[in-house]
């Protein structure tokens, strides 16, 4: 269909929809079945069997399978079956880990899907964009991504940026007029909005004409469908580590085999033992465990109202040293409330919190009502010159529109004025608020056909246009504005946002020209509004300070308002904490700002353009910056920052796309919690790296030293593989779920250049690993010396000592300060994992049918006491040294 050629009425008839009502839910259900979801096709997922087979692509596993095949051909059926079973179990564990990671990431994509405003059965609602159908009536505003191809019905200065489709960088002005010309390219279809393009200006309403792969961008997407896998910097480091380990393991395996053959061990036994040791030592599951740990951490962040769009952001969060936070809605509640009024040269105080419509009015400590001169009129003017509306959700009032307008509506409700009163007035013309004029004006007509202009906005824009002022006894000439300015300063010092309101009587013949109308106004009064700080913000800022993270407030408010809030929440605690205004930023370059930026606590009267300069200055100072924002113009600063944070409730789609973290509740405390979680995830990854590699060092040591001492093999290949299965799987995963340590937010931010083995981790791995290997070898040597005729008994003791030592060591890995610094029962997942591993150990020791397979035998009470004492030695020794 050539929708651009059709009049709006024809589009409505063709799609069986009315613009004023939208589709019915029955129509929506039918069309979803007919057209499917409004999504672009993505690369097909790999079949489950392919994902499973990928677990056996590792070079060492292939060598082991080949050795197993040889063992079977030589008649060693029990060993061959046992080793094959363990390899399969390892494969299943890796498979389920990858599945878990994929499912976590899929849930993440669902949560971060963009929303759209749609009209159905006469009511506007917000739904995921994928649920849009052909015929839906949708509304878009500045900053939105267009959710589907749609025919524009109403355009209010609407412009879209279509470079993703056409390559043209300049925005395209959109209209609702039908274009009767034929064979138009996309660039010339000015009445069509295209899916995935960006609304850069204005707003509009339209009817969806194509969805999903039938849209213009869908046709492009069908030519090239692919999915990119993002690898985090940490994963890259671990891949490099794995390559190094392979070379080390090859060397050690060759050394073990060579020494064993030199001392008379059979070639076949030594090759199989060497390969088994290599497979056990290489932590091939490490990247999978890291991915799972990251994705599980992401899920925990979602529960804390933070959506991570990029896994790499999880690592960066732990390095954050500066948070540049918006004030409104992030540090404050974004529930503007009228707290004070200036009327008839008197102060009036208003009670009531948030959006509750109950409250009282007081003048000179006396309760007043609608008989107070001009009070009801002032509230009525605020109600009429207003673009917001009140919605009721779950029994509570919510604001649909600007919070400042919403506060005036709530104040009017407290006096008993509502939309019913507003309906008694006829709206003649409206001049919307914009950032240049800083005011809004409306022309209304009352029931007696009298017209008047109402103007409200920033006092500095309203008061100079006033010639008169309303007093108790009527309108008087405004001789001086000093008393008004003094009141404005007094309100600003109390962190109140000030709105001035004025009126002007009109005649029906007057020209409706805004430049001539907004003169000789009559000043009515001032509204003082407060957006109170969130209750938890002060404590969160204190915790960030203790964690070495500087918090900076960025706001478009006046300096006095910003300073008052900063002092209340503990941001500005001394005269050394500077407050910079936007005009000062204009007069300095980035290098000048760098010299003083560490002393700045607040940036006031800041434009989005200033934010980029602030980010660059902090980064030049060596900081890792988290920058918050919600508007389209914030996107460059958010993209330039190390951690871009967008607002999930008030943020535009383009800002969300530029960010790496989305706050679902727009709350500063959520940023702090995300940083805490990011730090914990990184520390947990270090924990299981420490655990896995130390365990592997122990396994290498016992085998290599035994060969050098011309001892029999302390462990047979199937035992080595079983140790790998029992100790590397569940306990390592459980470490990834470890709760944060109490001091995680009392440490300085991590250096982003820090290596995986920094802060003494390399020493801990080698020292603990050697001790585990030493005690296991001692257990073997003592048992073998006392019973040289019973090699199976000695191997069983060594095998058990190695497993138990590693399972005790896992608790030591939970803290840098040692095993005694944390409650061992604070991680129930780890307790369950260790108990499961012990149970598996007992199974191969005491189930008679498995003893020939694993070359084990039952152990007595004296053996267990001996094993437990030896196994605990490494952790106890290093635990006491850490404690000191």
Question: Which tags fit this structure?
Answer:
single chain; 884 residues; alpha+beta; Calcium-transporting ATPase, cytoplasmic transduction domain A; Calcium-transporting ATPase, transmembrane domain; 4 domains; elongated; ATP binding; ATP hydrolysis activity; ATPase_P-typ_cation-transptr_C
Structure characterization notes:
By secondary structure, the protein is of the alpha+beta class. It has 4 domains: 3-38 and 132-221, Calcium-transporting ATPase, cytoplasmic transduction domain A (Distorted Sandwich), CATH 2.70.150; 51-102 and 232-300 and 675-739 and 755-883, Calcium-transporting ATPase, transmembrane domain, CATH 1.20.1110; 306-332 and 534-666, HAD superfamily/HAD-like (Rossmann fold, 3-Layer(aba) Sandwich), CATH 3.40.50.1000; 344-529, 3-Layer(aba) Sandwich (Calcium-transporting ATPase, cytoplasmic domain N). The chain is built from 33 helices and 28 strands. Helix 4 (59-73) packs antiparallel against helix 9, helix 10 packs antiparallel against helix 26 and helix 22 packs across helix 23.
């Amino acid at each position: 269909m050539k929708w651009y050629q059709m009049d709006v009425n024809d589009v409505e008839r063709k799609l069986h929809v009315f613009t004023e009502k939208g589709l019915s839910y029955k129509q929506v259900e039918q069309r979803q079945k007919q057209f499917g979801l409004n999504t672009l096709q993505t690369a097909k997922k790999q079949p489950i069997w392919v994902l499973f087979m990928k677990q056996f692509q590792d070079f060492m596993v292939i060598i082991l399978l080949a050795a197993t095949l040889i063992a079977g051909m030589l008649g060693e059926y029990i060993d061959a079956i046992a080793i094959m079973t363990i390899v399969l179990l390892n494969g299943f564990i890796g498979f389920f880990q990858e599945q878990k990671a994929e499912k976590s990431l899929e849930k993440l994509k669902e949560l971060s899907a963009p929303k759209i405003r749609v009209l159905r059965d006469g009511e506007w609602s917000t739904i995921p964009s994928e649920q849009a159908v052909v015929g839906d009536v949708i509304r878009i505003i500045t900053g939105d991504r267009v959710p589907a191809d749609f025919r524009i019905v109403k355009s209010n200065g609407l412009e879209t940026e279509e470079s993703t489709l056409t390559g043209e960088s300049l925005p395209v002005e959109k209209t609702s007029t039908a274009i009767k010309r034929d064979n138009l390219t996309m660039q010339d279809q000015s009445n069509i909005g295209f899916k995935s393009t960006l609304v850069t200006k204005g707003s509009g309403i339209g009817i969806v004409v194509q969805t999903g792969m039938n849209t213009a961008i869908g046709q492009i997407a069908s030519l090239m469908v692919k999915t990119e896998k993002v690898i985090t910097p940490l994963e890259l480091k671990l891949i490099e580590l794995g390559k190094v380990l392979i070379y080390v393991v090859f060397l050690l395996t060759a050394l073990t085999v060579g020494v064993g053959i030199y001392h008379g061990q059979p070639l076949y036994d030594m090759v199989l033992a060497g390969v088994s040791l290599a497979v056990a030592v290489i932590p091939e599951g490490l990247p999978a465990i890291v991915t799972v740990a990251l994705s599980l951490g992401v899920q925990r962040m979602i529960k804390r109202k933070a959506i991570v769009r990029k896994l790499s952001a999880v690592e960066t969060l732990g390095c954050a040293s500066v948070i540049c936070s918006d004030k409104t809605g992030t540090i404050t509640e974004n529930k503007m409330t009228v707290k004070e009024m200036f009327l008839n040269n008197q102060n009036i105080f208003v009670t009531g919190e948030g959006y509750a419509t109950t409250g009282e009015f007081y003048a000179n400590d006396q309760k007043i009502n609608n008989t107070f001169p001009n009070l009801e009129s002032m509230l009525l003017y605020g109600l009429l010159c207003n673009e917001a509306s009140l919605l009721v959700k779950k029994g509570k009032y919510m604001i649909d529109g600007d919070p400042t307008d919403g506060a005036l509506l709530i104040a009017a409700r407290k006096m008993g004025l509502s939309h019913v009163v507003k309906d008694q007035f006829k709206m003649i013309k409206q001049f919307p608020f914009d950032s240049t004029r800083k005011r809004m004006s409306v022309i209304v007509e009352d029931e007696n056909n009298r017209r008047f202009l109402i103007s409200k906005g920033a006092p500095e824009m309203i008061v100079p246009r006033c010639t008169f002022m309303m007093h108790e006894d009527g309108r008087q000439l405004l001789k001086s504005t000093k008393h008004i300015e003094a009141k404005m300063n007094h309100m600003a010092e109390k962190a109140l946002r000030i709105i001035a309101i004025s009126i002007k009587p009109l005649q029906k013949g007057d020209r409706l020209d805004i430049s001539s109308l907004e003169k000789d106004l009559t000043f009515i009064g001032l509204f003082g509004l407060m957006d109170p700080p969130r209750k938890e913000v002060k404590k969160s800022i204190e915790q960030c300070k203790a964690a070495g993270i500087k918090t900076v407030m960025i706001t478009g408010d006046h300096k006095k308002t910003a300073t008052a809030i900063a002092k209340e929440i503990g941001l500005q605690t001394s005269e050394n904490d500077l407050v910079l205004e936007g005009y000062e930023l204009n007069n300095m370059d980035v290098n000048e700002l760098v010299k003083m930026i560490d002393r700045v606590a607040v940036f006031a009267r800041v434009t989005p353009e200033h934010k980029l300069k602030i980010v660059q200055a902090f980064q030049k100072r060596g900081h890792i910056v988290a920058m918050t924002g919600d508007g389209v113009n914030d996107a460059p600063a958010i993209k330039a920052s190390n951690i871009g944070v967008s607002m999930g409730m008030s943020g535009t789609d383009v800002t969300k796309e530029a960010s790496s973290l989305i706050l679902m509740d727009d709350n500063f405390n959520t940023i702090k919690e995300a940083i805490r979680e990011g730090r914990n995830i990184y520390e947990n990854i270090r924990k299981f790296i420490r655990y896995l590699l130390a365990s592997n060092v122990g396994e290498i040591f016992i085998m290599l030293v035994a060969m050098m001492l011309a001892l029999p093999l302390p462990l047979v290949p199937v035992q080595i593989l079983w140790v790998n299965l029992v100790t590397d799987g569940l306990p390592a995963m459980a470490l990834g779920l470890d709760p944060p340590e109490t001091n995680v937010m009392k440490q300085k931010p991590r250096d982003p250049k820090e290596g995986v083995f920094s802060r003494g981790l390399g020493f801990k791995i080698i020292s603990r690993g050697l001790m585990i290997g030493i005690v296991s070898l001692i257990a073997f040597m003592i048992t073998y010396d006392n019973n040289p005729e019973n090699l199976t008994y000695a191997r069983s003791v060594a095998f058990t000592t190695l497993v138990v030592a590693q399972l005790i060591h896992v608790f030591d890995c939970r803290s840098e300060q040692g095993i005694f610094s944390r409650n061992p029962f604070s991680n129930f997942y780890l307790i369950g994992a260790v108990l499961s591993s012990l149970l598996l150990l007992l199974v191969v020791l005491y189930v008679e049918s498995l003893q020939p397979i694993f070359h084990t035998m039952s152990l007595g009470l004296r053996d267990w006491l001996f094993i437990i004492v030896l196994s605990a030695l490494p952790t106890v020794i290093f635990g006491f040294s850490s404690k000191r």
